[in-house]
Amino acid sequence: MTNKFREFIQKVGSGTHTSDNLTRAEAATATKMMLLGEATPAQIGAFLIAHRIKRPTGEELAGMLDSYYEIGPKLLPIAQPVIVLGVPYDGRTRTAPINIITALLLAAAGQPVIMHGGDRLPTKYGLPLIEIWQGLGIDWTGLSLEQTQQVFEQTGIGFIYTPKHFPLNQTLWEYREQLGKRPPLATMELIWCPYTSDAHIIAGFVHPPTEGMFQTALGLRGVNKYTFIKGLEGSCDLPRDRTAIIGLSSSNPEVLTRLQLAPSEYGFITKNVPLTTTEELIKEMQGILTGKTSELSQTALWNGGFYLWRTGICSDMQAGIDTATELISSGVLAAKLQQINTLLQRF
C-alpha cells in the first residue's frame, strides 16, 4: 500500500459534501501509479469507483491524458494534418458502426486517420473496431508499433491496438469487469491522442456534460482543433434518427461552436441501421466497397459527407455527400483496403 495513493482516494471518495477534485498534477500522478502498478489492487478499485461516483472534471481528464501521453504508445508525425477518431472501447451492440468506412473514405481522399482500441471489453462487451477490421481482412493485432507506423505512413491509416501496444492500459480493464461500471478512464480514452504532433481530435459522447469536460481537458493540453459528436452509442458516427448535435472548436478556446445537422434536409431517411450480427455487418460493408446501394451505404454517405466537409476537403455538407458518393462508386475505398492488406502481408 502507498500512502500517497491513499491520499488521492481520500480526496475523491469522501462523500458528496467533503469530496474534492484532484488537480491536474494529482490526476496525472494517480493515473501513472495505477498504470505502473504502484498502487495496490484494493486501492485501484476503490479509486476507480469513487472517482466515477464523484464524476471527473476536465482538469482531471487533462492530467490523465498527460500520463497516457508520457507512458503510452505514439505514432510519429507525418507531413499531412492528422485526425484521431475516438470510439468507445467497449464497442457497439444496437446500431451498425460505420467509422471504419469513414476512415477508409478519408484516407482515400488524402486525410490521414488514426484509430485506437482493443478487444471486447466489459461491461458492454460490444463489437469492437478490431473485429470489424479483421472481418474486412485486416488484422492489426500482430503488428509492432514500428510496423503500424509504416502502414500509417504509406496508407494514411494507423491503428493502435492497445493489448499489444499499451499492455499497461489493459491491466486496468480487469477492474472494469469486477466493478461493473465504466471508470472515468473510459471517458478520457475518447480524447486520447496516440500521436506525437498536433492532431484534430474527433470524439463521440452521450451525456451533455461530457462535452464541456472534453473542451476543458483539450484546452489545457493545448489542443485547438476538435470535434465532439453526440453520436450513436457514444461514438463519432452521426445518427440518422435525430438531428446530429455537434460541437466544433473555434478561434476562441473557451467558445464551442454549435452545429446541428438534420438528415432529412439532405434526403436521408431518419432511421439508424440496426446491428444484427458481425457477419451481416461485414457483408454490408463489403457491399459498400463494391458500390452496392443499401441503408448502410446511406449512413456511409451521411457520415462521409460531414467528415469530408469538416476536414476541409469539401466546401460544404452537400459537396461532401456528393464527393463521398463519387469516391465510393469509383472503388477507391476498396483499393485503399487492398493497399493496407498488401502491406500487412509483407510483415
Please explain how this structure is put together.
The protein has 347 residues and is of the alpha/beta class. The protein folds into 2 domains: 3-54, no CATH class; 83-345, Pyrimidine Nucleoside Phosphorylase, Chain A, domain 2, CATH 3.40.1030.10. Helices cover 49% and strands 10% of the residues. The chain contains 15 helices and 7 strands. The chain has helices at residues 3-12, 24-35, 41-54, 58-71, 99-108, 129-135, 145-155, 162-165, 167-179, 184-189, 208-220, 278-289, 295-310, 317-330, 332-345, and strands at 83-86, 113-117, 157-161, 200-204, 226-229, 244-248, 257-261. The chain has a 7-stranded mixed β-sheet with strand order 3-2-1-4-5-6-7, sandwiched between helices. α5 (99-108) links the parallel β1 and β2. The longest helix is centred in the C-terminal third of the chain and has 16 residues, at 295-310.
Structural class: alpha/beta
How far do the termini sit from each other? 43 Å
As for the CATH topology of the largest domain, it is: Pyrimidine Nucleoside Phosphorylase, Chain A, domain 2
Q: Rg, please?
A: 20 Å
Number of strands: 7
Number of helices: 15
The CATH architecture of the largest domain: 3-Layer(aba) Sandwich
Strand proportion, as a percent range, falls in 5-15%
Return the string of H and E elements. HHHHEHEHHEHHHEHEEEHHHH
Domain count: the total is 2
CATH superfamily of the largest domain: Nucleoside phosphorylase/phosphoribosyltransferase catalytic domain
In round numbers, the mean pLDDT is: 96
Helical coverage, percent range: 40-55%
**What characteristic shape results from the CA principal axes?**
globular
Strand order of the largest sheet: 3-2-1-4-5-6-7
Describe the sheet with the most strands: 7 strands, mixed
CATH structural class of the largest domain: Alpha Beta
